[in-house]
Amino acid sequence: MILYFIPFEQIGEFKLQHSVTGYTNKFVFEVSNGESSTGWVTFSLDEFGLSLFVDKATMVIESISCDEECLYKGRNIINMTIQEFITHSGKVYYDEPDCLDFEEDNIPQYVYEFDDIGLQIWVKNDKIVTVIAFEHIEED
């Protein structure tokens, strides 16, 4: 499976804002109830490093996470530095990233939000370790 990212639309064949039930006949997911605060269920394909975050009530895919491969503009962005991603994507990042240190290894992760393409990028030890795709959010 090729996990290519199309902004605001999909990663691989998994499409944002589509029902997960369209994929459950083709793939064997590991399913977990996830966070009760979000009302989401997580459908994971560990062999691809992919997780779908699904609204529990509607079964619609709200976001998609990758931690092994995610192709954007012909290159895998997992393991790039954030500067390599900025150069490769042509995007500019103006804000300060959020710094989170919630894992047992005491190594902080930095979270960059690229709202103009619907991508959240998590960086650890100067390398991209996870990307999360989301739909376009209308601002008031």
Write the layout of secondary structure elements.
Blueprint: E1 5-6, E2 10-11, E3 14-15, E4 30-32, E5 40-45, E6 50-55, E7 61-66, E8 71-72, E9 75-76, H1 82-89, E10 98-100, E11 109-114, E12 119-124, E13 127-134
Antiparallel strand pairs: 1-2, 2-3, 4-5, 5-6, 6-7, 7-13, 8-9, 10-11, 11-12, 12-13
Q: Overview of this structure, please?
A:
This protein has 140 residues and is mainly β. The protein has one helix and 13 strands; from the N terminus they run βββββββββαββββ. The chain has one helix at residues 82-89; strands at residues 5-6, 10-11, 14-15, 30-32, 40-45, 50-55, 61-66, 71-72, 75-76, 98-100, 109-114, 119-124, 127-134. The strands form three sheets. An eight-stranded antiparallel beta sheet has the order 4-5-6-7-13-12-11-10, with no helix packed on it. It has a three-stranded antiparallel beta sheet with strand order 1-2-3, with no helix packed on it. Strands 8-9 form a two-stranded antiparallel sheet. β8 and β9 form a beta hairpin. The longest helix has 8 residues, at 82-89. The radius of gyration is 15 Å and the shape is globular. The mean pLDDT is 92.
